[in-house]
Every structure is written in C-alpha cells, then in structure tokens.
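Z., the sequence and structure:
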Amino acid sequence: MSPDRKPAGRASAIRVGCKEGVCVVSFPGKNLQKLEAEELLRATHQESGVTRLVLDLSDCEYISSEGLGATARCWKLCHEDGKGQMAVVLPSSPVSEVRNLFEIIGLSRMIGSAIQPTVNDAIAYIQKFS
C-alpha cells in the first residue's frame, strides 16, 4: 500500500512483505476485522495485482465476517485466471476460534491442502505450482 493511501495518523493494520517471490501478509494486531480486511484487499489485489499470496493467520485470535470474506475473495482472485496461488497459515491450536470458523463456513474444504502449518511451508507449497 502506498503511504499516501493510508488514513492520516494511523499505522498500517497489516504487515506485507515479500519472501522468495511470494507476498506474505500478516496481522500484527492479532485480528482480521473490517479495517484489516479492507487493507488486505487493497494492498494485495486492487492496487498491485498480487497473484502469489500467503495469508499468515498463525497469530490471529479473532476473524470477523469481513475478514473471512476478504480471505475468500483473495482466494478467488489468486485462482481466477489459473495464474496464481494462495496458501493460508492458521493458528496451530485445534481449539483456535479462527481455525474453527474456517471449518464451520467451509473455507477449510475450499482451500484444502493450501492450509499449511508455517509460512515457509506455505511458500514451498506455492512454489510447487510455479
């Protein structure tokens, strides 16, 4: 996201980096809510056209419906042309609210084997398709 697109006086709600040619997005506030979801979509697709994405939710403690929707939209946008890939790193705890919501709404089935235990595993998963 370009600095001039952030609301004045507010730090970014997401952390975006690049590792081995893959965009990695994480959430330092431990939440993926409306603000973070909007920033995620803006930073990864609407402005930059990212097609190789790791969504690192390993430290997330809460995800809103907007966050779940943004995750599904990122998945769709990455896979739309058959040119991109996305992987998701979920919290390791089996009782994680984020992990449970992915199961309940069916994102776990949709994403399937793209759910990876670590960011490095997720990057390796994406690179298999390159």
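The beta strands are 15-19, 22-26, 31-32, 52-56, 62-63, 85-89, 115-116. The chain has one domain: 11-127.

Let me know what you think.
H.
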